[in-house]
Amino acid sequence: MDPRTREAFAQWTLAQPAVSAFVHAVVIDRAERDDVLQDVAIAVLESFPSYDPSRPFVAWAIGIARHAVADSLRRRLRAPMRLGDAATDALAARRNPLPVRPAAGEPGRRHAQRS
To answer: What is the distance between the alpha carbons of residues 57 and 17, in angstroms, rounded to a whole number?
Structure first.
């Protein structure tokens, strides 16, 4: 391992608890949080050549984490919401308050009929 890569790993090892605390504070879902932290670790190590050693490494790494969190939130907002059967049924019941029962003479078909 070359000295620059070794330095990147050493700096990340020291900064990781602070970066992790930041991500834990803003990302609620555990799986998403783990994904964000992994993305941050990769981005920090890949971007290390652009790091300015005259500035604090932790602040630089948290800046990368902020961008990763924002990217994760954007992906989550664009993802379609998936509802289970119970939630779908509950929403349908709220939208159509009429009781649903099979129509006379039509087995298997369901119609809303007033009582």
So the answer is: 13
Taking the alpha carbons at both ends of the chain, their separation in whole angstroms is 78
Top-confidence residue, 1 or 37: 37
pLDDT in tens, 38-85: 999 999 999 999 999 999 999 999 999 999 999 998 887 766 767 778
Structural domains of the chain ordered from first start = 3-78 (1.10.1740)
Integer angstrom CA distances of residue 97 from 60, 91, 114: 55, 10, 10
Cα–Cα distance for residue pair 41/28, rounded to 1 Å = 19
